Amino acid sequence: MAGILGKKIGMTSTFGADGRSIACTLIQAGPCVVTQVKTEEKDGYIAFQLGYGEAKLKNTTQPLQGHFKKAGTTPKRKLAEFGGFLKDFKLGDTITASDLFAEGDKVSVIGTSKGRGFQGVVKRHNFSGVGGATHGQHNRLRHGGSNGACSFPARTFPGMRMAGRMGNDRVKVSNLKVIKILPEQNLILVSGSVPGANNSFVAIEK
Amino acid sequence: MLNELLAHFKEDTEAYAKIRASVPEFNVGDTVNVHVKIVEGAKQRIQQYQGVVMQRKGTSSNGETFTVRKVSNGIGVERVFPILSPTIEKIELISRGKVRRARIYYQRERFGKASRIKEKLS
């Protein structure tokens, strides 16, 4: 899908046409530079690799430095591939938010959710815990209950939901409406919330 | 950073500043008359809603709201309005009330004579 890379700035609210308050997220989308063009002949599919965010030269590996040099740009922090563009771009072209999106469009936003650390099943999988606090229970209020049966199958099935690391996952939120676009500042305002912390990288897809 | 970039949404910020300038200074305990736009099908009309301001919330942000309480046919009604809401035609200050609290929730338990608020004379 056609898309662009950006940075989550933060949340605010605005009023819709009917006077309802809409919670919305401000995203700095682009400008992105085409760092590689994938073609049918060479790669078997058509896509564009986009780069976003300035990186220091000393923090860029030499192979990547060559890659950016080929595209004629400065080193970028984030690279990602998008296909399905309606327009054609050349190596080194700049893509901005207004090239892709219009006000009123529905978009998907992909980001990395905030890391929650090691969490129990109640928070991580919405378990309700074991029963109540009374009737002799004293030490298993937020436990998950049984992990499986006894001598048959004599093992815990894979995929059993248990405590563990939560968050820091790739999360995609779809059907967010583009409320406003400011081409000069490369800002777009989308309805609803977007995964990740402020200043984290996000991808916006159409 | 958020606020800096938000300032770029000039139309909004300008419109909001205009609304803020047009809103009279009112506080908790004051009696206000809120003119609310109501859309019925294709028609639009103004409804007046008069009552006592119970609280003002989030006063420094664009999400600021205020709660107005009135007793309608013996039933207490509270409505929350965003101060920058485009559905508000205007806010009229009817009288100033003298209260000692920022949130006058105690009004909910009072009716009739007991719910009177002393008028502040400036």
Describe this protein's structure.
The complex is a heterodimer of chains A (206) and B (122). Chain A has 206 residues and is mainly beta. Chain A folds into 2 domains: 151 residues, Elongation Factor Tu (Ef-tu), domain 3 (Beta Barrel), CATH 2.40.30.10; 47 residues, no CATH class. The N and C termini of chain A lie close together (6 Å). Chain B is mainly β and 122 residues long. Helix content of chain B is 15%, strand content 40%.
Largest sheet of chain B: 5 strands, antiparallel
| Percent helix of chain B | 10-25%
Cα(first) to Cα(last) distance of chain B is: 41 Å
Domain count of chain A: the total is 2
Give the termini distance of chain A in whole angstroms: 6 Å
The CATH class assignment of the largest domain in chain A is Mainly Beta
Residue-averaged pLDDT of chain B: 86
H/E element string of chain B?
HHEEEEE
Gyration radius from CA atoms of chain B, angstroms: 16 Å
Tell me, what's the shape of chain A?
extended
Biggest interface in this structure?
A-B, 20 and 16 residues
Q: How many DSSP helices of chain B?
A: 2
- How many beta-strand segments of chain B? 5
Helix content of chain A: 10-25%
Gyration radius of chain A (Cα, Å) is 23 Å
Query: Spans of chain A with pLDDT under 50 lasting ≥5 residues?
Result: none
